[in-house]
Amino acid sequence: MPRVVRETFVQERHHLSIGISSTRIESVKRQHTRKVGVRAYDGRRISIAGGLGFPDTDLLWKNAVDGLPDGIGYPIVPQTDHVESLNNVGREFIQSELAEEIQIILSHFRSKYPDLIFSGKAHFENYSASLKNDSGLDLSFSTPLFRYVMRFKQRNSCSIFDGGSGTFGVNFDRNSVIKDLEQGCSGYHSFAELKKKKKLPVVLSLGYENFVLRKVLENLSSVSVFEGTSVFSPKRKELELSPDFSLLQASDSANTGFKFFDYEGTVNPNHSLTLINKGKAVRFLSDRLMAGEYGCMNSGSAFRGKYDTVPSMGLPYVQVASTGRTIKEITAGRDAVLVLMVGGGGATTDGQISFPVNLSYLLRDGEVVGRLPQINISSSVWKMFNEDYMGCSSDSLLSLSHFPAVVCEMDVEPI
Predict the structure, then answer these.
(1) What is the structure's pLDDT at 209?
(2) What is the pLDDT of residues 16-31, one digit of tens each?
(3) How far apart are alpha carbons 132 and 83 in whole angstroms?
C-alpha cells in the first residue's frame, strides 16, 4: 500500500472595515476568519476535509483518508523538503486607531474639496497562510494590508458618483494615502479637450493593466499552448511581442501582500519566474498536474481553489518588467491619457479590447493638465504589447506602494 502524505493548509484573516458616506464614517465592521484544509495524497488520488475556526485536525485527517478510495485523480507527489517563512512587518491597528486615522483623512478632504462628497471603504487586515506536510514542506506567510477605495460626486450632481481613486499597501502612511486618493480629484475642476478620435499614449495603472494582461495570460496557459489554441503555441506561427516587453510571474510579497507560494506549495526561485522575455514566450502557466501531462515546467500557478478544494491553475500575480524610464520620459513630451476609472468594457477572443473610461486626465510632461470628457479607449492586445508598446515606468503612480504604469498607444475617442 503506498504511503499516504498528510498536508495541512491554514488561512487566517483579521479584517477591519470602515464604511464612508457623505465624507464621514458611517460604519465600522470587524471580522475574523480561520479556515483549515487537511489533504491526503496516496500518489494516485487526493482527498480533502475542511473546517472553520479551530477544528480537530486529526478528525479532518481521518475523514480525508477515509475519502481516498473515492478521491479525485491526482497522480502527483506533493512538494517536499522546503522550509521558508516570510513575515511582512507593518503598522497594526486597533479599531479606534484606524477610525481616528480615517477621520483625519476625511477632515482633509472636507476642507480642501468642499464641493465634493466622498464615499467608499477603508480596509485593514492581517492575513496569514501556511502549508505544511509530513514530507518536509513547511511554508508560512503573514502580512498586514491596507486598502482604500474612494468615490466622489459633486454636490449638485445627479450621478451616483463622478469619479474615484484608490490606494493599497503593506505599510500604512497617512500622508501617502492622502496623496494617492487626491489623484482622482486634484485636477477634477480643470478641463482638457479631446474633440476627435486620436491615437495617444495611454497610462494604465491601479490594476487596469491587468484587464489587458488577462488576455496575454490566457494565451500563456499550458493547456492553450500545447493544444494549439494559443498565439504562443509551437503548433502555430509563434507570436513575438515588443523586445522591450517582458512579463514575470512575481509575488513581490513585501510590496503587494501576495503570498509567495501557490496552493500546491510551489515556490519559484527568488519568488519570480519570467514568462515572456524581451517579447518571446519562454515559460507557460501550469500547475503540477499540467506540468506532468504536457511535459513542461511547473510554473507554480496553482492559485485557483479554496482551502478545502483541489488546487488547480489560476491566474497568478504578474509584473511587467520596468523599461527603466519614468512616465514623463516614456511619453517624451507627448500628450497622454491617465486612466483612473473605467466602466465595463470587454475583449474578443482574438484580442480586440474596448472599454469606456469614466474618469481620466490629460498628462503633459508627466503632469496633470485637466480632466478629459468621457472617452472610450480601444486597441488590440497584440498591438499594445508589440508595435504600440511604449514601456513600463520606473516610477509609481502610488505613494503607499510601488505600482508602476504600463504605457501603450491606443485609440482614444470622446463618447
Answers:
(1) 55
(2) 999 999 999 999 999 9
(3) 9
Q: What ranges do the domains of the chain cover?
A: 5-184, 198-209+324-414, 221-320
Cβ neighbors of 76 (< 8 A, separation 6 or more) are 41, 46, 264, 288, 289, 292
401: amino acid identity, one letter: S
Contact criterion met (CB below 8 Å) for 21 and 151: no
Whole-angstrom Cα distance, residue 233 to residue 70? 36
Q: What is the rounded average pLDDT of the residues 275-280?
A: 95
pLDDT in tens, 213-258: 888 999 999 999 998 889 888 767 668 899 999 999 998 888 888 9
Q: 403 is written with which cell numbers?
A: 505600482
Cα 368 → chain centroid: 26
Residues in the chain, total: 415
Percentage of the chain lying above the pLDDT 90 cut: 67
Q: Whole-angstrom Cα distance, residue 248 to residue 317? A: 9
Q: What is the pTM of this model?
A: 0.91
CB-based contacts of 284, cutoff 8 Å, min separation 6:
220, 221, 222, 225, 226, 232, 275, 296, 297, 299
Q: At which residue does the C-alpha cell 496557459 appear?
A: 221
Beta bridge partners of 338: 203, 361
Distance CA 255, CA 258 (A): 8
Q: Considering the chain, what is the average pLDDT of its residues?
A: 91
Model pLDDT, residue 207: 60
Fold of 5-184: PmbA/TldD fold (3.30.2290)
- One DSSP character per residue, 322-378 reads P-SB-HHHHHTT--EEEEEEE---EE-TTSEEEEEEEEEEEEETTEEEEEPPSEEEE
Name the grid cell of 155.
454636490
pLDDT of res. 183: 84
Instruction: Give me Rg for the CA atoms of the chain.
Output: 23
User: Contact at 8 Å (CB) between 40 and 47?
Assistant: yes
Q: Hey, what's the cell of 58?
A: 486529526
Question: Is the separation of the CB atoms in 411 and 202 below 8 Å?
Answer: no
| Cα separations in angstroms, 131 against 8, 78, 175 | 6, 11, 36
pLDDT at 208 over 70: no
Neighbours of 12 (CB within 10 A): 15
